[in-house]
Write a structure and sequence with these properties.
The complex is a heterodimer of chains A (157) and B (288). Chain A folds into two domains: 77 residues, Beta-grasp domain (Ubiquitin-like (UB roll), Roll); 70 residues, DNA polymerase, domain 1, CATH 1.10.150. In chain A, 34% of the residues lie in helices and 17% in strands. Chain A contains five helices and five strands; from the N terminus they run ββαβββαααα. In chain A, strand 3 and strand 4 form a beta hairpin. In chain A, helix 2 crosses helix 5. The mean pLDDT of chain A is 97. In chain B, the strands form four sheets. Chain B has a five-stranded antiparallel β-sheet with strand order 4-5-10-6-7. In chain B, helix 2 links the parallel strand 2 and strand 3. In chain B, helix 5 packs antiparallel against helix 8 and helix 11 packs across helix 12. The termini of chain B are far apart. The chains are: A alpha+beta (157), B alpha+beta (288). At the A-B interface, strand 4 and helix 3 of A face helix 2 and helix 6 of B. The complex binds flavin-adenine dinucleotide and FE2/S2 (inorganic) cluster (2 copies). Flavin-adenine dinucleotide (FAD) sits at the interface of chains B and A.
């Protein structure tokens, strides 16, 4: 069975056709050309596929594409405003909070969701919030520092 | 596979009842999608229940709460009255997965997936929660511990599904708690879990208790003798020691890569005792 899905992605109206058993992650990557969201595991464990669905952080690999009908999806591609990087993106670059980069889109989407809810998280809160995002390269410390530093800068901005 | 997202309970029942092949309900999908993608499951029909308004609400009912079957862990944690009344149920739900999983996972899915290690189920059973089941013959209300039959098996007839869960009114002097053992602090499957719900009178004496154990049997175990042993006590050290021994005796664990039979048997007693102490403090109004 194919399904026609009408949805909003990063503020834009989108329509696509998918199989009923296809995931949102596959639809984003294969039908919409939005390859920023990555597939690390496909089982909800790594967070590389993190997107916002109606304002909630979710794993796109555990959402059916058909579920996006009439919903709002936000991906890493919507994070920079035009040419201007989001402060988290800039900080990840400046602080070298990435190596291979596979996990980075997921961390950025998840960290942005955290700072929108809690502009002043503790280190423990950052670590728990990001516990569903795995990184095989950095050892996490630079990522956690980058999120905390961005939060501090955004508060004083 | 066919995907349907009906907008009423009746329409969902009609779809499920009308499918001759394998039909599956989709709530948060955090179990179902993993099973679909691994090829473990090839349903002919998936019925997404999230567009049915009744499944998306937490309503006050008879002093307690009716929690729609598609309410997520994150939404439960944001519901202040629910957290205040049933902290043990909410903390059990919030232990499930990551922030991303919390945005989707539901207590109904945790229950209906029927994993022996499901975290929310012992807490629900200890709280005396019931499930409202809707189906071709109307609706019925069943204790959550009676819904689970064994690993991956629930007692639902063709066309039936869980529309909501009900948590009763929290009595004066009542408190609940859930604890699990995993080898780390996050993102793992319970090796052992224990839910306890206690009621204390004005003198701190226990008048009612329910103890439910997870991951130490094919389905959630309601440890009735262990709970009965608490009634009449003040939850002193001796009573808690007796509780630990009785829950260890009630457990029927298996050996697997997560833990041995002996380990699980011992730890379930320890967790029941600790959970009882937390429930006692909550019953006495201390923030725990
Ligand atoms: C990374 C990760 C970590 C996890 N960690 C934990 C954990 O720590 N503890 C834990 O217990 N679980 C854990 N889980 C498993 C899962 O998240 C939970 O069991 C969750 O509560 C399932 O809810 P759901 O709404 O996503 O269920 P779904 O996947 O939608 O459904 C699960 C099953 O129940 C059926 N079902 C769902 N709703 C109904 C209904 N209303 N009526 C009838 N049948 C229904 C479905 O058909 C399916 O068979 C984890 C999963 C992942 C991916
Ligand atoms: S790809 Fe979705 S969580 Fe790993
Ligand atoms: S930078 Fe390589 S996985 Fe995180």
């Amino acid at each position: 069975m194919t399904v026609t899905v009408t949805t909003t992605i990063n503020g834009d109206h989108e329509e696509f056709v998918c199989e009923a058993d296809e995931t949102l992650l596959d639809a984003l990557r294969d039908h919409l050309g939005l390859t920023g969201s990555k597939e690390g595991c496909g089982t909800g464990d790594c967070g590389a596929c993190s997107v916002m669905l109606d304002g909630r952080l979710v794993c796109a690999c555990l959402v059916l594409a058909a579920e996006a009908e009439g919903r709002r999806v936000e991906t890493i591609e919507g994070m920079a405003e035009g040419g201007e990087l989001h402060p988290l993106q800039q900080k990840f670059l400046d602080a070298a909070a990435l190596q291979c980069g596979i996990c980075t889109p997921g961390f950025l989407v998840a960290a942005k969701a955290l700072l929108e809810r809690n502009p002043d998280p503790s280190e423990t809160e950052v670590r728990y919030w990001l516990a569903g995002n795995l990184c095989r390269c950095t050892g996490y410390d630079k990522i956690v520092r980058a999120v905390l530093d961005t939060a501090a800068e955004m508060r004083s901005a | 596979m066919r995907y349907e997202a009906p907008e009423t309970l009746d329409a969902a029942v009609a779809l499920l009842a009308g499918e001759s092949g394998v039909a599956k309900v989709l709530a948060g999908g955090t179990d179902l999608l993993v099973q679909l993608r691994s090829g473990m499951l090839e349903p002919a029909l998936v019925v997404d229940i999230k567009r049915i308004p009744e499944t998306r609400r937490i309503d006050a009912e008879a002093g307690g709460f009716r929690i729609g079957a598609a309410v997520t862990g994150a939404e439960m944690g944001e519901h202040e009255e629910l957290v205040a009344a049933w902290p043990g149920v909410v903390e059990a739900m919030e232990l499930i997965g990551s922030t991303q999983i919390q945005g989707r996972a539901t207590p109904g899915g945790n229950l209906c997936n029927a994993s022996p290690a499901a975290d929310c189920v012992p807490a629900l059973a200890a709280a005396g929660a019931t499930a409202r089941i809707v189906g071709p013959d109307g609706s019925r209300e069943l204790a959550v511990e009676d819904l689970v039959e064994g690993p991956g098996k629930i007692r639902l007839k063709r066309g039936e599904f869980v529309a909501s869960l009900f948590l009763p009114e929290r009595a004066a002097g009542q408190g609940d708690a859930y604890l699990r053992f995993i080898p780390r602090t996050e993102m793992d499957i319970a090796v052992v879990g224990a839910g306890v719900c206690l009621t204390l009178d004005g003198d701190g004496r226990c008048t009612a208790a329910r103890v439910a154990l997870g991951a130490v049997g094919p389905r959630v175990i309601l440890a009735e003798e262990a709970a009965a042993g608490l009634v009449g006590t003040t939850l002193d050290e001796a009573a808690l020691e007796a509780l630990a021994a009785a829950t260890s005796a009630a457990a029927t664990p298996i050996d697997d890569k997560r833990g041995t039979t002996d380990f699980r048997r011992k730890v379930v007693g320890v967790l029941a005792r600790r959970a009882a102490a937390v429930a006692r403090d909550r019953a006495q109004g201390e923030k725990a």
